[in-house]
TrEMBL record:
Cellular component aspect of the GO annotation: cytoplasm
Family: Belongs to the ferrochelatase family.
Protein name per UniProt: Ferrochelatase
Catalysis performed (reactions): heme b + 2 H(+) = protoporphyrin IX + Fe(2+); Fe-coproporphyrin III + 2 H(+) = coproporphyrin III + Fe(2+)
Classification via InterPro entries: Ferrochelatase, Ferrochelatase_AS, Ferrochelatase_C, Ferrochelatase_N
Protein role: Catalyzes the ferrous insertion into protoporphyrin IX.
Pathway annotation: Porphyrin-containing compound metabolism; protoheme biosynthesis; protoheme from protoporphyrin-IX: step 1/1
Amino acid sequence: MPRFLPELPHKHGTPATTAVVLVNLGTPDAPDAPSLKRYLRQFLSDPRVVEIPRPIWWLILHGIILNIRPKKSAAKYASVWMPEGSPLRVHTERQAKLLAGYLGEQGHHLTVTWAMRYGSPSMPEVLARLKANGATRILIVPMYPQYAASTTATVVDEACRWLLQTRNQPEMRFIRNFHDDPGYVAALEKTVRQHWQSHGQLTANDRLIISFHGLPKRSLDLGDPYFCECQKTGRLLAERLNLQPEQYKICFQSRFGKAEWLQPYTAPTLHALGKEGIGRVDIICPGFVADCLETLEEIAQEGRDDFLAAGGKEYHYIPALNEDNRWLHALTHIVERHLAGWPSKAAIDPKAQETTAGLAMKLGAHA
């Protein structure tokens, strides 16, 4: 097997071009068991995602998990599937299109596309296509505000594996995190305040839950900064909302297995609040910039059922940023900072481009 991927003949004088790739976690191709099995096999085989000795984990994964979990997960995906496909895929694609429009309005002449770390379109597939189309500078944007080895680092790993197979390599940059970016936090604040305009401000007997995806506690002990970055995002958001410490709580969801994970856990917290007589819970998930199974099924559906069954009266999930206008502006500024030094601006014929406002209306972006 050749060590390097095949290359197109090099042509001297070919213009250098720049590309931006938004990368999210991934999604099955369809809400059915075979698709889930393929997706989970790839996802759960990543040694950064599951740090259990490989021989032991192989037996657990192939002997138990892949024989039980796909059918259960498929039913959950089916409950949130959109007409256009998986919510994560739909929102990520829309974000890429809108980002291209905003960058174009700032005078940038570049390609903006998207990929999934697990599933399709795969990162190697997207990177190879960009390179074949002349991209010599590629900015990778992991869509995880808070850095973790099991998320952001796996994106870097996959890109570097592709580079190892590439003879004529493009320049490549990565965005590490944006957990405390003022524009990102302001966009979160806006979504909460818009929600409060419709449902009323929190009272003394109400709570805002700020829920992040969980990780094994061992990751924190080994030096992963994720827990601390989640805490900072939550604190900054609470400060912008002028909340008192007793009015909000930072929690961690999606625990898997019997090992201790980052605490407090979201589901038991919701149950306890219902038991304590808390009347209303609003919940937001800042670690997800696009709605997906973990927000729409686990939080919006299961979380509501847990809270109401425990005695709570009113429960609201505040949607992810998705195509929010302020969020897309923030993402544009984040990307521009990381493009610094790469020539990407050129004269653009405005008649040849659809206006961002028009595109946003088509995609249902929030004003």
